[in-house]
Design a protein that fits this description.
The chain is of the alpha+beta class. The strands form 2 sheets. A 5-stranded mixed beta sheet has the order 1-3-8-5-6, with no helix packed on it. A hairpin with a 2-residue loop joins β5 and β6. α3 packs antiparallel against α4 and α6 packs across α7. The chain is globular, with a radius of gyration of 20 Å. The protein starts with a strand and ends in a 13-residue tail after the last helix.
């Protein structure tokens, strides 16, 4: 299997093709592919789904993917590295890189909200026009448009049911999951008794209800979600261990290291030393 690398912070290009130029490739970067026109099948990690105009696909690092085209198709392709996501100051989605990175189980279009589909269509048209014009401040405008598309993609990913969740899930469990994600930095607000009171349930009922709906205990979900965020702080930021401990409400480095080692088998520093950060990329957007 061939591997594609990205040596730029951001690469954006339009293409009109009648066959997939890259087949069964594995990337070391994120790729958003918007279908402007045409039909066919899209395969990600062995899962194959049909695609249609307006679909937006997210391919995460180490995914394998390819398109099977039925005739001529038009695509807008947006590629960006881990550092691009980690360094941008997202105002309301401080774990946006975690949302994107853990979307590798998604094969279908990430756009599930119809209004967002219309917004992305408009953004893509503006992006195409900007790339063709190459006018003053085009690079800044491209980045603003791309960032808007990334935020919309992340927002839609956040409302897609997590893996393992019941197919006939209650709307209330989705509200509980949203609450946990919003309060992940505040341990006192994630106690079973506090969550139960928040949603008008008894602690005992909440425990059984969550397990039936999600296939794991509420504490397992909270811990695994927190671990993923900590992993991404280690990968994508220069935060020191004590700063990460403060962010997630741990008393000190010793407590967060015990928590992390229980789940990952190593300390935070050990994990950071073992897993390389994203590459450094120059600021270029072109094919």
């Amino acid at each position: 299997m061939a591997r594609e690398n990205l040596y730029q912070a951001l690469e954006v290009f339009y293409e009109r093709v009648d066959e997939c130029p890259l087949r069964d490739r594995q990337f070391n970067f994120f790729e958003l592919v918007h279908v402007i026109s045409g039909n066919g099948d899209h395969a990600v990690n062995g899962n194959r789904v049909p695609y249609f105009p307006g679909d937006l696909f997210l391919i995460t690092p180490n995914d394998r993917h390819e398109f099977d085209l039925e005739g001529v198709c038009e695509f807008m392709v947006i590629r960006f590295g881990e550092n691009y996501v980690g360094e941008y100051q997202w105002q309301s989605i401080d774990h946006i890189e975690c949302l994107l990175y853990n979307a590798s189980h998604l094969s279908a279009s990430v756009l599930v909200n119809n209004e967002d589909k219309k917004t992305v269509h408009s953004l893509i048209q503006n992006l195409k026009h900007t790339l063709e014009g190459n006018q003053l401040y085009s690079e800044d405008l491209v980045r603003h448009l791309v960032n808007s598309i990334i935020v919309i993609a992340a927002r839609n990913i956040s409302i897609i049911k997590p893996q393992g969740i019941s197919s006939n899930v209650d709307e209330r469990i989705l509200r509980i999951l949203d609450y946990i994600q919003e309060q992940i930095h505040h341990p006192d607000r994630l106690k079973i008794v506090v969550i139960a009171k928040k949603f008008g349930l008894s602690p005992t009922y909440l425990g059984g209800y969550f397990r039936r709906q999600c296939g794991e205990t509420i504490q397992q979900y909270i811990s695994s979600y927190k671990i993923r965020l900590i992993e991404h702080r280690l990968r994508f930021s220069d935060k020191r261990v004590h700063e990460i401990a403060d962010e997630f409400g741990f008393a000190d480095e010793s407590h967060i290291n015990k928590f992390f080692k229980r789940h990952k088998g190593m300390s935070l520093r050990g994990y950071r030393n073992q897993v390389p950060n994203g590459n450094s990329f120059s600021n270029v957007f072109s094919k």
